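User: Predict the structure for this protein chain, please.
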Amino acid sequence: MLFNHLIQAQFNAGDIITLSVNDYCLIETNHAPVSLTLSSPVVGASVTQVSNSDMFLKISSITWWIFRRTVSAKISSGSVPAGTTLQLVAANCTTTNSGGRLGTTTGTINLSSTDQQILKSIGTCYTGTGYNDGYQLTYTWVPTTVAADYDLISATTSPVNITVVFTISTQGWN
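Assistant: Here is the predicted structure, written as structure tokens:
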């Protein structure tokens, strides 16, 4: 008698694959040069504020879904000349090459040697890698109080260099 049925055999093998996503955060600027010069456009007028919006801040963040991050800024070296204030404000993140929980801006700060928040409620996100991707930063240099402190403003013989440091931190539960 011949076999009327084909015998089929099936064997399985498997291995365990382990996947993990680490909590991390990276921060960088586009390193755009920022150069500000106070001057007066009209004879007899006080110096006017000057702004630069060429710098962008980029972030990559993976965090637990219950945690949020903040970004703060401070002057780490150098001093703003007397009678003047250096302000900083971050715009909302560009949306072309970004995604995730990008957080919100906190408004204009007067830069000092103390950390001050410029962004909050950042979760897992990325802001893009292009030169003009991320949070656009606007630096504005202004006379502090024109009527009261104007006589404190003094010409400089060479440019004053200031280093601004950005720090990304975990905010905690949110």
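Residues 46-149+163-173 form one domain.
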